[in-house]
Amino acid sequence: MGVWLQLTKYSSCLCAQTMNPEPSSFPQSAIELTFTGPFAWLETPGVPSVFDRVPLGTQGIYLWAIGREDGHLVSYVGESGRCVHTRLAEHYREHVAARYTLNEPRKYAAGEKHEIWPGNYGKSKRDLGDCVRASIELAPQIAELSRQVRFFIGQFNGESRLRRRIEVGSTGSPHARGPRALLGHGRGRF
User: Residue 28: which H helix or E strand, with range?
Assistant: First the structure.
């Protein structure tokens, strides 16, 4: 049994629905999530900071996206049973410390992955010293990637197993990486 995530843009919200692929089971398994956003790490003109506008204590699913003229390209789907602020602050610390994989900003904004640093996770685990050196050398690229990131938050206070299932079903794979879905025109499927 798989999980589908359908997204439709309504003004400043994205509404999502998870369901079984079997049409007969849709009424019994539908869960509707409303994704609000976009937000940024740091407030920019027209885009509020996720830390200022998302209510403290919010749990749920969050989408990392890259803003484009034709919508937002989702690059990562996460979940948190803790406060989303706490989880996104952890992500930010890992990002600026070059512990995450870094891609060339212009290509990433266009939806292409072009790795400029492998980070500390995955196959090529770099030690902390290497990450510190890379964070200094790649500071301009890290700053640009930080400015590009947009977030959409879907509040979900349900059981953790279901929240994790929605997250994994949304990515198509628990280990999917890179831009995968464009939000902005009608319905999209991850």
Answer: helix 26-29
SS3 37: strand
Instruction: Pick the closest to residue 40 from 30, 50, 27 (CA basis).
Output: 50
> 6-34 pLDDT, tens per residue?
444 333 344 444 444 444 444 445 667 78
Asked if the peptide bond before residue 140 counts as cis, ω within 30 degrees of 0, the response is: no
- Two structure tokens written together for 78: 């996460």
Residue 157: band (very low, low, confident or very high) from pLDDT cuts 50, 70, 90: confident
Paired tokens of 104: 């060339």
CA 148, CA 144: separation in Å to the nearest integer? 6
Closest CA to 116 of 92, 137, 132: 137
Distance CA 112, CA 131 (A): 23
CA angle 143, 145, 149 (to 5 degrees): 120
Q: H-helix or E-strand containing 6?
A: strand 4-10
104: amino acid identity, one letter: E
Q: Is 9 helix (H, G, I), strand (E, B) or coil?
A: strand
**pLDDT, tens digit (0-9, with 9 covering 90-100), for 27-67:** 445 667 788 889 999 898 989 998 888 877 788 888 888 88
